[in-house]
Structures are given as C-alpha cells and as structure tokens.
Amino acid sequence: MSDWMQEKLHPHHAQALKLDRVLYDSETDHQRLKVFENGTFGRVLTLDDVVQTTEGDNAIYHEMLTHVPILAHGAAKRVCIVGGGDGGMAREVLRHDSVTHVTMVEIDAGVVEFSKEYLPTLSQGAFDDPRLSLVIDDGAAFMKTTEGGFDVIIVDSTDPIGPGEVLFTDTFYGHAKRALAPGGILVTQNGVPFLQAEELTNTMRAFQALFADATCYMATIPTYAGGPMAFGWGTDGTSRDTPLETLQDRFAAAGLDPFYYTPEVHKAAFALPAYVVKCLP
Ligand code: SAM
C-alpha cells in the first residue's frame, strides 16, 4: 500500500486514494501538508493525512457552504470565512457581486501560500480580489474580539482535532453568533454523521441554545467518505423558509454556473434522513 494514501480518521473505517504522483509533502508550523495527484480526483490536499479538498469534488462542498446561505439571505454584503486556506470557499463567495467584503481568517499561512502555488484551480485568483481581506490568526481568537457585523459566517474548518478543535466549542459558536448582523447566518462543516454523529449532536446542541432556527443540511462529497456530510445552520432570521421561486430569481440574478448547486437542491438539502434527525438533540 506504499503508493496509496490511507486516511484513518475513524477507529473502524478508512479510505485509500492512489498516490499517482506526490507533488509536496512537508510539515508546516501547524500540521503535515501533502499534495498528490490522483487519477480520479486530480490534485488532492491532505492535512495530517486527512483529505481536505480535491480538484475533482471540491465544488460540491464549497458551493453548498456558500450559495445556500448567501442566496437564502438575499442581501449578503459582508461575509466571514473561518479556515478555508485553500481558497475554494473564497472563490465561491466572491462569485456573488452583491458581496462587498470578505474576511478570511486562516490559522496557517502555509496552507494559503502552498495552495496558491500547487492548487491554483481551487482559489482561481480569489486571493487577488480586492474585496478579500486575509487574516492569519486562530479563528476562535479572531471571533472573540471582532466587531463583526457579518451577514454570513462560514466555518470551513478541519475536523475537531488539532487546530480545528476550538472551532467546535460552545464558546466559539457564541462569539460567532455575536459577530452576526441582524438576520445573519452561521454555517459550519460538521462531518459525516453516519461516522461522526457526536460531532453533529454537539454542534446542534450549541446552536439550539443560541439560535431561533438551528438545524443542518446535507450534501454528498465523494472524498468525505461515509455518506452525506452535514452542514450546521444557525440564524435568528427566517431565511430557511425563503420560497423556491425567490431562490430561483436570486440564483438567476446572481448569474452563477455551478457544478452542483441548484435552488431545488438547496431546498431539498434541508430534508434530513431519520438517522440524522436522531442526531439533533
Ligand atoms: N473541508 C475540509 C474538510 O473538512 O476536510 C477542510 C478545509 S481546509 C481549507 C480547513 C482549514 O481550516 C485549513 O486550512 C486549516 O489550516 C484551517 N484551520 C484549522 N483550525 C483553524 C483555526 N483554529 N482557525 C482558523 N483556521 C483553522
């Protein structure tokens, strides 16, 4: 198996991807960073041997964490991305002309620099967009002190191990809620509930204590193995109820040409399987 990358994120389940060509493999100040080529997924970025993103399927993840809250909100101008070092999330947020300012808070400058060089198809120039402010800091520390006023906050974190752990705490969620403008929406990556049910339950418990509308929505991303991934959704507004026709109008006006997102998928993503409903406290 020496020419395969094995991701052992879970105690009884692993996935393997063929290492067709390793392009980079080194330690940053925070984590072990690797990029390799794979015949199915193109270039693959791993941190501590856990898949973060791939050229092949990243659009599903990035579109669902950006277009869903931004089009549901309907007038999002100020967006904050926590994590997101590969630039894929910034790329999708900046497709919205309505967005005037994006603050991206990434703990690891190494991921950003590296992604610019080895994964330019992820950011597609987003780091050069004048609407983007890049802050190199711990997202939890930033959220504690920011003046906020964000219409949408997107947590594009690693799993709750290592530097990403603080981004799954009640304290962080509380600070993020305070940083939202009225009607603002917080969305989070919450793992694959078939394998990481506890992670979703913990986030949902915190969200239910903080927000009038707390739930999750889902999408299947092939390299996040084990079934559909859950995205946390928290807001005091009513944007989850935005009618399909309104989403269709906003989608057409935004001029997007997504790989995965449609307004119909947007609405359907909030329909949860019974085993996921049981994860919600
Ligand atoms: N979607 C991926 C997944 O779940 O596999 C994760 C994407 S990757 C862009 C996540 C980013 O979060 C990494 O660049 C990592 O450096 C960053 N990160 C981890 N902990 C962080 C923290 N406390 N503050 C800010 N960024 C953090």
UniProtKB/TrEMBL annotation:
Q: Name one GO molecular function term.
A: spermidine synthase activity
Ranges for domain PABS come to: 2-236
GO cellular component terms, alphabetically, are: cytosol
What GO biological process terms are annotated to this protein in UniProt? Answer: spermidine biosynthetic process
Which keywords, in A-to-Z order, does the entry hold?
Polyamine biosynthesis, Spermidine biosynthesis, Transferase
- Which pathway does this polypeptide act in? Amine and polyamine biosynthesis; spermidine biosynthesis; spermidine from putrescine: step 1/1
Which sites bind S-methyl-5'-thioadenosine? Q31, E106, D138, G139, P163
Q: Which CDD domains has this protein been placed in?
A: AdoMet_MTases
Enzyme class comes to transferase
Q: Provide the coiled-coil residue spans.
A: none
> Can you tell me which residues form the catalytic site?
D156 (proton acceptor)
**E.C. designation(s):** 2.5.1.16
Keyword Transferase appears in the UniProt entry: yes
Source taxon at top rank? Bacteria
What positions does the entry give for spermidine binding? H62, D86, D156, S157, T158, D159
Reaction catalysis annotation = S-adenosyl 3-(methylsulfanyl)propylamine + putrescine = S-methyl-5'-thioadenosine + spermidine + H(+)
**HAMAP family listed in its UniProt record:** Spermidine_synth (MF_00198)
This protein's assembly is summarised as:
Homodimer or homotetramer.
Role played: Catalyzes the irreversible transfer of a propylamine group from the amino donor S-adenosylmethioninamine (decarboxy-AdoMet) to putrescine (1,4-diaminobutane) to yield spermidine.
State the family named in the UniProt similarity comment for this chain: Belongs to the spermidine/spermine synthase family.
Which protein are we looking at?
A: Polyamine aminopropyltransferase
Provide the species name.
Pseudoponticoccus marisrubri
